Amino acid sequence: MHHAKMEVQSNQSAGNQSGGLKKRLTSVWHHFKRDRQLLLIFIPCLVFYAIFRYGPIYGMIIAFKDYQVFVGILNSEWVGLKHFRTFFSSPDFWLLFKNTFLLGFYTLVFSFPIPIIFAILLNEVRLRLFKKWVQTLSYFPSFLSIVIVSSMVIDMLSPGNGTVNQLIQYFGFGKIYFLIDPAWFRTIYVVSDIWNHMGYEAIIYLAAISGINPTLYEAAKVDGCKRHHMIGYITLPGMLPTILVLLILKAGSMFRIGYEKVLLLYNPMTYDVADIFSTFVYRKGLLESNYSFAAAVGLFEAVIALVMLLAANFMSKKAGGKGLW
C-alpha cells in the first residue's frame, strides 16, 4: 500500500514538472512570436559578439603553449604556466600592476562623478537654447576618434605654441613640458578622459532623471522644498539604480584600460608611470612577436577585470540591493 502511494505521488510530481516545463516553453514561444521583429534586429549584434568577442577566446590557449605561427595552435608545444611564472617573476610585473591600477583608479574616482554632476546641472537649466548649446558642445568630443583627441591634447600642451603654455607664459610663468614630465601624465590622461566622455555619459543620467515622476517635484514645491533639497531627496535617489549599474561596469573595467590613448600620449620619458598591461601586451605581442607571453599577460589582465566586476557587483548588492545580476 505504501509503495503504491509513493508511486502515485511520484507520477503526480513528474506530471507537474512536465506541465510546468510545457508552460514555460509555451511562454517562451509566445514572447518569441511577440518580439520577433526586435529579435531579428538583434541578430547582427549577436553575430558580431559571437565572431569578434567569443570566437577569439579559443586563441587564448596559446597562453599555455610556445606558439609558433607555422606550426599552428594545436601542434605548438604545451608549456603550462611557464609564461605566467615568467611574467610574475619579472621586474615589469609590479610596475605594470601599479600603473594600471592607479590610472584606472584615478579615472574611476575623478571621471565617474563628473557626468552625474553635469547631468544634474543641465537638468536644472531653464533656458532651453542655452541648454541645447551646452549639450551639443559637451557631446561633440565623444564623436571624435582617440587619435584626434590625443592629437588635440598634444597640440594644446605643446611647449612651443600650445594654448596652455601660451596662457602660462601670458601670466608670467615659465613653460611646462607636460608630455615628458612623468608627474603630469596621469593628470593629463584623466582630464582628457573627462573631457572626452563627460557629455556622452551624461545622456544616460539625463534619461534616468527624465524617468522620475514629476509629481514628486510638484509635491516638494508645495511643501516648500528648495532646489537643492529636491536634488538631494528626489533626483539623486531616482538616479541611484543607474548610478550603481554604471559604477559596477566602471569598476569592472578599471584594469581594462585601452592601449590606444596611452600609446599615443606616452614616450620613453614617461614609461615609469604610463606603461600599463595593455601597452605591454602590444609591445610584446605585435612588435616583438612574442605571442604566447603577450596572451598570458592579456589573460591575466582579463581575469583581474572579471574579479573586479564580481567584487563590485557583490558590494553594490550588499550596499544598495541592486546589481547587474
From TrEMBL:
Pfam families: BPD_transp_1. It is found in: Cell membrane. Keywords: Cell membrane, Membrane, Transmembrane, Transmembrane helix, Transport. It is a multi-pass membrane protein. Gene3D superfamilies: MetI-like (1.10.3720.10). The keyword Nucleus does not apply. The chain crosses the membrane at residues 38-64, 101-122, 134-154, 202-219, 231-249, 291-312. Residues 1-20 are annotated as: Disordered. Residues 97-312 form the ABC transmembrane type-1 domain. The keyword Ribonucleoprotein does not apply. It comes from the Bacteria. InterPro entries: ABC_transporter_permease, MetI-like, MetI-like_sf. Belongs to the binding-protein-dependent transport system permease family. This is Aldouronate transport system permease protein. It comes from Paenibacillus eucommiae.
